[in-house]
Design goal:
Layout lengths: L5 H21 L9 H12 L2 H34 L1 H16 L2 H9 L7 H23 L3 H9 L4 H39 L5 H10 L3 H29 L1
Helix pairs in contact: 2-10, 3-4, 3-6, 3-8, 3-9, 4-6, 5-6, 5-8, 6-8, 8-9, 8-10, 9-10
């Protein structure tokens, strides 16, 4: 299967915009008539405001904090699970709960104890934790035992075994986990803001667009959420690739 090129992505984007414009021409209800041009104009208007950058800053900062927290906890749980079957079963149960319970239930639960301003940190960490933990555990199960046997036979130092066997092997699984976790974490984070509507945040602006029936504003901030998530994912993966 061939990887998509920049030309393919541009062509796909233009196709989506064309379909959007065609649908716009067929919609008769004024409140739902939002063209690509009107959204572009609204983006330009928002970019000129101070509040727009505050919304991006708060969503981006707290979501990244949540992702980092989730990854750290996931790696710690994976290490402890690898050493202890009891902790492994405990961690698997915890991750199963995170996977099956609707994210909105966690959002409402945390609202009892956490300020709405910091809610997306916990939401993003839960989403990141379950994905990273599952992938790294799968990577540990698939480590070639022959490499470990050879390392022990030649009495290789532990840090060399960790660096050249474990790290090199698990990095592929970590990249795969982050490529999914970052996007999912941003979705969950913005959903938390929609429910808790703190003073600043992209989710708050989306919530306000629902209150005022402003589809233009809804699409504008949804597009920015997608763009920020995409850019963060690409930057993180590029940094991990540079390490190799």
């Amino acid at each position: 299967m061939k990887d998509s090129t920049t030309k393919d992505r541009i062509f796909t984007g233009l196709t989506v915009i064309l379909i959007w414009q065609i649908l716009y021409n067929f919609v008769d209800v004024e409140i739902f008539k939002v063209s690509p041009l009107s959204v572009l104009q609204n983006i330009y208007v928002n970019v000129l405001t101070r509040e727009f950058y505050l919304d991006i800053f708060y969503t981006l900062t707290f979501t990244l904090c949540g992702i980092i927290l989730g990854v750290i906890i996931a790696i710690l749980l994976t290490y402890l699970s690898y050493k202890s079957t009891f902790i492994m079963e405990l961690s698997k149960t915890l991750v199963m709960i995170f996977k099956t319970v609707p994210i909105v239930s966690f959002i409402v639960f945390f609202l009892f104890f956490v300020s709405s301003k910091y809610l997306n940190i916990f939401t993003a960490s839960i989403v990141s934790l379950q994905i990273v933990f599952t992938n790294i555990m799968e990577g540990l199960r698939n480590i070639d035992e022959e490499y470990l046997f050879m390392a022990k036979m030649y009495r290789a130092k532990k840090y060399l075994i960790f660096k050249y066997i474990y790290m090199d092997h698990l990095m592929t699984y970590l990249k795969a986990a982050l490529s999914v976790a970052i996007g999912m974490a941003f979705k969950a984070s913005v959903a938390a803001e929609v429910i808790s509507h703190p003073e600043h945040g992209l989710g708050t602006r989306i919530y306000e667009s629902k209150i005022y029936l402003d589809l233009n504003e809804l699409l504008t901030f949804s597009i920015f959420t997608v763009l920020i998530s995409y850019l963060v994912e690409k930057i993180v993966l590029r940094c991990l690739d540079a390490r190799d």
